[in-house]
Amino acid sequence: MDGIGNQGKGDDPLVIAGRTYRSRLLVGTGKYKDLQQTYDAISASGAEIVTVALRRIDLAARGEDSMHDVLARLGVTYLPNSAGCYTAEEAVRTLRLARELGDWELVKLEVMADAHMLMPQPEETLRAAKMLVADGFQVMVYTTDDAALAKELEAAGCVAIMPLAAPIGSGLGIQRPERIEAIVRQSTVPVLVDAGVGTASDAAVAMELGCDGVLMNTAIAEAQDPVSMAKAMKLAVEAGRVAYLAGRMKKREVASPSSPMAGRISEQAGRV
Question: What is the DSSP secondary structure assignment for residue 21, as one 8-state letter?
């Protein structure tokens, strides 16, 4: 009981590429109304890894009005990503730029099939992953919920597999939980649901399926109260993890009383 009861106190860490994190919630930096809201929401989330889109944020910029200042004050791990890239070469070039800017080797690979649905392009994603791993990067990879592709990406050397729950920014929640479970069962590296989470219950479901973490942005940034939603997501991820470790009850097709039927007071009275 102690092992489960003490979750959140550091005895159930998330380990990615040999590094240990207390929080299993990863967040993005886009869509907030201003830098102050960005800071407040990320702080409330408790996230220790924050992903930033190199094609949308100038990480070379410094000063009080820069994203670099916000993330530095939070003390989080940068996770540069290749959002907005549509070929392997484009993604590799973008992430190599990240390494030049900040000596970051832990990166999030995204190669999109198109600008409308923002679904991962499988062949280009796998090709880019192989190129980046060969170049010494530690690659966390955004991918579809295809278990066969996830297996190939892990074999290519990716340090974390990040299947989508639903299209980016849709807020639809996990559409095919059985596919996420299949990826979790076969993987020996962390599996984190990435994209499609809409509210706290979605995050809890992801964790209850056995995922090692959840990455989100829009679900927090587009909430009516982003800071409160960030707190809710933090709690949901923690609760889902503890529920997964506790092991849920078996599902039954018929009712089963919480209290035993034998030895009821009425039966005992009848025997007097």
Answer: E
pLDDT at position 116 is: 83
pLDDT digits (tens, 9 = 90+) for 138-179: 999 999 999 999 999 999 999 999 999 999 999 999 999 999
d(CA 56, CA 53): 5
Q: Which residues are catalytic?
A: 108
Q: Which residues is 3 bridged to in the sheet?
A: none
| Whether the Cβ atoms of residue 144 and residue 183 lie closer than 8 Å to each other | no
Q: Among 15, 68, 77, which Cα is nearest to 39's? A: 68
Q: Would the pTM of this model clear 0.85, i.e. be above it? A: yes
How many Å apart are CA 166 and CA 164, to the nearest integer?
5
Q: Which two tokens stand for residue 233?
A: 């997501």
Decide: helix, strand or coil at residue 7: coil
**CA angle, corner 68, sides to 64 and 69, nearest 5?**
35
Contact 128, 135 (CB under 8 A): no
DSSP β-bridge partners for residue 15: 20
> 218: part of which helix (H) or strand (E)?
helix 218-221
Residues 23, 63, 102, 144: is their CA dihedral positive or negative?
A: positive
Helix, strand and coil in the chain, % to nearest 5: 40, 15, 45
User: If residue 26 lies in a helix (H) or strand (E), which one and from where to where?
Assistant: strand 25-28
d(CA 191, CA 203): 13
